[in-house]
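Regression test attached.
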Amino acid sequence: MAKTIEEINEKIKKGNVVVFTAEEIIGVVKEKGLKKAAEEVDVVTTGTFGPMCSSSVYFNTGHASPRIKYGGGRAYLNGVPAYSGFAAVDLLIGANALPDDDPRNRVHPGEFNYGGGHVIEELVAGKDIKLEATAYGTDCYPRKKLETLINIKDLNEAVLFNIRNAYQNYNVAVNLSSKTIYTYMGILKPDIGNANYCSAGQLSPLLNDPLYKTIGIGTKIFLGGGVGYVAWQGTQHNPAVLRGDNGVPRRGAGTLAVIGDLKQMSPKWLVGTSMLGYGVTLSVGIGVPIPILNEEILQHTTVTDEQIYAAIVDYSDAYPNVKPSIVGEINYAQLRTGKATINGKKVPTASLSSYSRAVEIAGTLKNWIKTGKFDLTKPVAALPGAESGVSFKTLKERPVNNHIK
Amino acid sequence: MVSKKIVLHFPKRMVDRPLVSHLIKEYNLDFNILKASITPEEEGLMVLELKGKQEDFDRGVKFLKDTGVIIDSLSQNVSRNENRCTDCGVCLSVCPVGAFEVDSGTRKVKFHDKKCVACALCIKACPPRAMELHF
């Protein structure tokens, strides 16, 4: 019997909603069978926590007296450059931003101890942040310089807006070269000395709704410890990749753009992150509820780590040089054992995504729903699916001679 | 027989003197150098695993102390800031001695500081910078 989101929300209100995490549901369906479980279960909660680079915060500081317009000038938050190309006192800070004087990779591998991701973590933690702004001055915004402490509690709006998060599956990174390399997938030792992966696998939001049957624009989610929404498909959303019989992508596929009020989030779930030799980023916690509207939707949530395959990619050559070749495929159950055999070599595996935090997020979201603190939304539009023609293109470089602006 | 890991701090004036070789020659101790460095201020630091009879070990350590070398035990030197660790587990493939382990039940990452040899590879490899080195 099919359910509707309205019916599930009624049960949330009454306090008799049935919720399981994407990990628990595997055993529940095994025990009860798909048909019976689909009738009984209302919601399956997912979770993921890992470095998600295309993350940012925008905020409005309120007007100083006399007024200053950051737009067209420059602004720094704890020495990290913020984007100021908006009207007067709006600023945006990206997770990957670095102080102008950071040594970066001048001595390789650079340490990248502080940047945009760390500013976001400190802002959400309620710490004072130093804002320095310079402007050119106008008749209506005469001020040219500002230096002050700001605090999230005094900001008019502070919004987490991440344009690409929650990747649906991801590469497993190895290094085929003869020297150690330092990547956004961690330190990769020579001659396939190790393999790093980054997915919550069977708990990951989009791997539990592989065909985007329920997760869409407007879906209410757990974001950074608070409530957020899916704003759009994420950048690089690539639904038409190779998929298994279960519909689950075997490559990096769909992504989500997410948004939410930073003021109700927590630094536990937005963690400034440093990748040696690569840069800074932000680790983000996201959980998405999946309403069990029918058997097919439930079937997808029972996916296990054994059934999710990812591509093993060489980050010394294939990745940097955009070569399509892969080293092989491997499933997450094998990766989670800590050892994998790749090209005949037994190598240690390690995760960049925290599985225990993904479990905690799915459990927290389950509790929110069961206690009536969180209800479900119906998407206002679907994410583009495999049939949409949306694909992830590479950049076609063209000569710039005689280009007239 | 005992096997212990110790940290030696050599003051500036002693960096150019052979000392550790005496541990073999005169105290019958076997050693494995786990880490050695000289800082810009020319202070020397060495992490040693010493093996031998307890009596020889005690005499060897006394010899080093008498020369002015400062000796610490190793276990306190690398620690984890539990507030920053997110239990991702990327440290597992970096640590050469297997001091990190993922609990198969909770999937949380355990740090066995007794196994740690203070090589410090995890310090900068840890994405949230949860591992701390105290010398």
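Expected vs. actual: identical. Chain B has two domains: 2-73, 78-133.
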